[in-house]
Predict the 3D structure of the following.
Amino acid sequence: MQPPTATAAAPPRPAAPRRRTPAGAGTTAARPWSVEERADLTPRSPMRLPRAGRDGVVRRRGDVLERALHVDGHPVVLRVAQPAPNRIVIGARAHDRAAARTAIDRWRAALGVDADIRPFLERFRDDPLIGASVRARPFLRPGCRAEPWEALAWAVTEQLIEFDRAVLIQRAILRRHGVRVPSWDGTGRLVDVPAPATFAGLAPAWLQSCDLSGGRSLSLIRAAREVASGRVDLRDPDHERGWRRLRAIPGIGSWTLDILGLMGQARYDRLPAGDLSFVVLVGRLQAGGDRFATRATEDEVRAWFAPYEEWAGLAGAHALGAAGVDAGAIVRAGIT
């Protein structure tokens, strides 16, 4: 009688591969936040909270906006809600109380809670170009970032390309080098824009692999080095000093600096006059509304908005909405 044939043991199943954070992406380990700060505020002028950004930095949960921010290297998670037209509530969780308070102040400034635009509303409510928009949407503002560096870096990625394509570039940068922070309740993760020092160390070829052109990759890295080194302080009240130094970088022109001023430093006098939306708008206005009119020049756009003086950027946002022109970069994350 033949002995029974032994059954071969099944080969061991390979272990499931671990999910890895993309190389270079900073991560703050999920853990309970030890500090919470809150500010209950009354806006000085009519306002509404902005939309969530398409880059994924600012996210909306119901009626609440949430984002991560870093203050001197300390991670902070912020939330803001508007329970009533005249009430804005901003909360911050962190491990450093001073960082939490500073983060609240920065988002408060970016949202324009303390900006008094009542003189603008009163002066231009009957303006033939923007008066109807001013009366109907007194809350309208350009979208401003909590960090000036974000406005500058993203402006470089948006130069002379479609906004949808720029968003893909921004998301690619965030996937690889964005700093991840636990959400407010710790059940998810938020991502913050990489610091200037991170951008300063990137290889131009890597940025090109994200679809950013070679020239703009170099411009972004050089701008990051200026900011990371302290040679340009984007929070210095003397904005023009930093702009002059940045303007010396090839590829950093008037449009980029106007976006930085308007959307990163809350300078309502800055108008991105070279933006396609404005050259189309003013070209039509100069031609009496002809939709097929020749585009205006940047100088013609500035001359057209010169009467609005220190409110040129805010007037520009109203003008685009009133004329039904694609608002482009000026409203990409800010106007509800």
